[in-house]
């Protein structure tokens, strides 16, 4: 059901927010570190209107699922919790949220590591802000979206996804400092475009491993006597830690340095090298890759016109991203997907729309 059918004759307010693909700076956000996400051309759209019934009525056209809950009730478990969190957190700031009807639709793939969850939260908050007219800047909106995911959807996430969805665009990389929340829009290296491949591998281990890695990073920071691993200046400083904290810390410290170098402005070839080094660090030191993600990155690096490739998102499945020469991304991606899927039965990797110069300017 589309939004026009859902709302009938009633006028409604429409707002969208993008997903994100992180080019560099993985598992750094909860270490107060640095990252470089780009907004995807794909986005989530939330349409909203006042409800005559004393309930929040929400329909996701993506899932074909309708949910309703009252002002004093909890939302049922599932996608509505991301939205309920946004509503409740605004109410806690003394912003009056009357009963609403909401329609959600999206072309961000769900659960592929492109952050459809942040896109849903940010689009929901934007739609309510546009309808109800309360004052909330884009940074505050991202922080509320993050808290909604942590407190209401039960996902202990960092701040990157929501900041990217709220502040990034598809024409730039968003340099983000997770400690200060300072941001800068930087140009994507000249003469290059991006390709994203969803590995199709289930992310079954992702949530538990994520929590273990966070705890390891906190332990490493404690042992090094710093507030967060962001405060470790040089890779050698982690050498006195015992494994596996040494390796975990080495990833975070070296990854922050890679982001800082890339943010200074490097050409596409160097940026590709930094992506390759990031993947090796995530694979060997942080141990969040799986053989299928390694294989996809190897295939991408061997393809014509690819500068570099890495897993993107938390790992254990999800997507990989590559930086390619302008005009080379679509063909490289299609060839890699075909070879990868032919490599073993049951594989279902898929090319997600390349972020090309064309899609960037849409
Ligand atoms: P990712 O953010 O990487 O796509 P997550 O597991 O964090 O993966 O978030 C996916 C969840 O977000 C879905 O299972 C669903 O609950 C919710 N979600 C995201 N987009 C939508 C949508 N368009 N409609 C309904 N639920 C959505
Ligand atoms: Mg998510």
Automatic annotation (TrEMBL):
Entry-linked InterPro entries: Galactokinase, GalKase_N, GHMP_kinase_C_dom, GHMP_kinase_C_sf, GHMP_kinase_N_dom, GHMP_knse_ATP-bd_CS, Mevalonate/galactokinase, Ribosomal_Su5_D2-typ_SF
Q: Which PROSITE patterns match?
A: GHMP_KINASES_ATP (PS00627)
Instruction: Report the enzyme's class at the first EC level.
Output: transferase
- Identify the SUPFAM superfamilies for this entry: GHMP Kinase, C-terminal domain (SSF55060), Ribosomal protein S5 domain 2-like (SSF54211)
A molecular function GO annotation: galactokinase activity
Give the protein's recorded name: Galactokinase
Organism name: Massilia soli
Please report which protein family the annotation says this sequence is part of: Belongs to the GHMP kinase family. GalK subfamily.
Known EC number(s)? 2.7.1.6
Which residue intervals define the domain GHMP kinase C-terminal in the entry? 266-340
Domain Galactokinase N-terminal residue range list: 6-49
Q: List, for all copies, the residue spans of the domain called GHMP kinase N-terminal.
A: 82-167
Supply the PANTHER family for this chain: GALACTOKINASE-RELATED (PTHR10457:SF7), MEVALONATE KINASE/GALACTOKINASE (PTHR10457)
UniProt entry keywords in alphabetical sequence: ATP-binding, Carbohydrate metabolism, Galactose metabolism, Kinase, Nucleotide-binding, Transferase
